[in-house]
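Notebook entry, structure prediction.
Reason for the run: the old model in the group folder had no record of what sequence produced it. Starting over properly, with the input documented here first.
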Amino acid sequence: MRQVTVSVPATSANLGPGFDCLGLALDLRQDVTFIPQSQPGLNISAAGEDAKKIPLDASNLVYQAAEIIFRRLGNRPIGLTIHQNNCIPIGSGLGSSSSAVLAGMFGANALTGDHLSPPEILQLATNLEGHPDNVAPAVYGGLVLGVQGPDGLVVDRIQVPQMRVAIILPNYILLTVDARAALPSDVPLKDAIFNVSRLGLLIRALQSADYDKLSVAMQDRLHQPYRVPLIPGMKEAFGAAREAGASGVAISGAGPSLLAFAPTQHQEIVGAAVASFQRAGLVCRSWILPVDIKGVQIRYN
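New structure, fully documented this time:
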């Protein structure tokens, strides 16, 4: 077995009305190197963003995902060294767990002979994650719509022009399980219609870079009204980002990151949103990121 490095992009899911089905890959990556060893044992190291939060034992998510593939294929290295170089903040709503799952699965598959295709790995990752809105764009890059059908996952990669988005991450812990627990089990029919109509408009607006339509297209009634109040300063940051020039604003994934689309003035948008969070007592990290169009990349060293 030879050494393999897997690079996986960050993702922003939901994008307003695209709850649990729409996601966008962003050019912020986690690179994971897998080195097979001739002696038994597991050695994991981590560097980069939030490296201290990454477990260095068998509870590591990259390793756990790799184990799924090793067991499925009935093949594994005698020993294994894993090094994570992470640029995706953990617990941010930017797909950090999805990137770890995909890195582990693609890495294990590459180590053992590439017997599984990307769609097969994507289905396994979706089964583990529960929905495809992060893992699908991370695999294929760009804007991806993913739906779990009766015969398996159906995905459509939607061509979008190159654009940049602003990401503002307040220093606030919002667990995905808590963000999901805040959602109602049933929603009114009018809210479902509201989201369905805007999802179509959002896809069309992103395809054509029609920023004028994004303020309406990114509206949502299924998850954001219940999650925005969970994050101090988020409501005010939404308004401040729009006033600074954002065409469309949304919670990224389950939060707590804020995502803003705009043709220009990204620095001004970041500054305005950061100031809103600061008034709520939260410091922030921020990025201005292009859309990633490469998806998962595998390098044999």
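Summary: Residues 189-207 form the longest helix (19 residues).
The old model has been moved to the deprecated folder.
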